[in-house]
Amino acid sequence: MVENRPWVTFLSHFVLIIGLIVIAFPVWMTFVASTHDQETMLRSPVPIWPGPYLLENYWTVLTEGYRNRPGTVPLYITLTNSMIMALGVAIGKIFISIIAAFAIVYFRFPFRMAFFWAIFVTLMLPVEVRIVPTYGVVAGLGMLDSYSGLIVPLIASATATFLFRQFFLSVPDELTEAARVDGASPMRFFWDILLPMSRTSIAALFVIQFIYGWNQYLWPLLITTKESFYTVVMAVSRQANVVDSVPSWNLLMAMAMLAMLPPVLVVVFMQRQFVRGLVEVEK
């Protein structure tokens, strides 16, 4: 029986409200800054309520970029590039990982576990560690300034392979035997039984990997030289680090708000599947 203690309820809600304010206040100030003009943002004190330039600022960065400065492109192009990259990375990681885990668990071949542990060891080798040889391979294949160059080097995931392997190991052997008795081929068993059972795990990994791909900065910065392949994270960073002038903070904050929107929407619309994928195991 749970005791009803009003002071505990009040304290827990108070802590949650304080945490919400701490987290939400920077986002609120970013939104406020994106609705004012440059002169207002350079004056003291900084406003804490929205201004009248919301539509103008957002339309400017979406269609013209950062006031047509050299090295900038309209934000809709960088948003499109980031969306293609994030979707490609998320879908590619899930596809390769689930197929690899299926092969490791359900097929018997020489050095099966050695291959699995070789994949697992790559957890200690993030992109930043192997970036020089990876760049050499991508450049040698002529994949610089291309979507394939942005996506392919990032789609292998030891973490996702490990999670799918652990899930497949939890599937009862009786289910596998029943499918074999019914004459199901290995791929039929995978598509009709394992894949539907894995949908919550796939949804959870999709959210994580989408945000991972969306937030990539170093790799796109390294392999892209054409403005038409810049990602939105690159665009925001380049305009925040201007040397010859003061940044247009109102436009920069509008860019930041638009850059935050897609991953936030993914989390909001898939939060139920995300939580179920982390805490539930469907059999």
Number of helical segments?
Answer: 15
CATH architecture: Orthogonal Bundle
| Domain module tally | 1
Number of strands: 0
The overall pLDDT, averaged over residues, is: 84
Tell me the CATH topology: MetI-like fold
Judging from the principal axes of the Cα atoms, what is the shape?
A: globular
Q: What sequence of helices (H) and strands (E) makes up the elements?
A: HHHHHHHHHHHHHHH
Structural class: mainly alpha
Helix percentage: 55-70%
CATH superfamily placement: MetI-like
Question: How is the biggest beta sheet arranged?
Answer: none
Provide a descriptive summary of the structure in words.
By secondary structure, this protein is mainly alpha-helical. Helices cover 69% and strands 0% of the residues. The protein contains 15 helices and no strands. The chain has helices at residues 6-33, 38-42, 54-63, 75-106, 112-121, 131-140, 147-151, 158-169, 173-181, 186-197, 199-214, 218-223, 232-240, 249-269, 271-279. Helix 3 crosses helix 14 and helix 5 packs across helix 8 (158-169).
Provide the fold topology.
Elements: H1 6-33, H2 38-42, H3 54-63, H4 75-106, H5 112-121, H6 131-140, H7 147-151, H8 158-169, H9 173-181, H10 186-197, H11 199-214, H12 218-223, H13 232-240, H14 249-269, H15 271-279
Helix pairs in contact: 1-14, 3-14, 4-8, 4-11, 4-13, 5-8, 11-15, 13-14
Considering the chains and any ligands shown, give keywords for the structure.
283 residues; mainly alpha; MetI-like fold; 0% strand; globular
Describe what is shown at a glance.
With 283 residues, this protein is an all-alpha fold. Helices cover 69% and strands 0% of the residues.
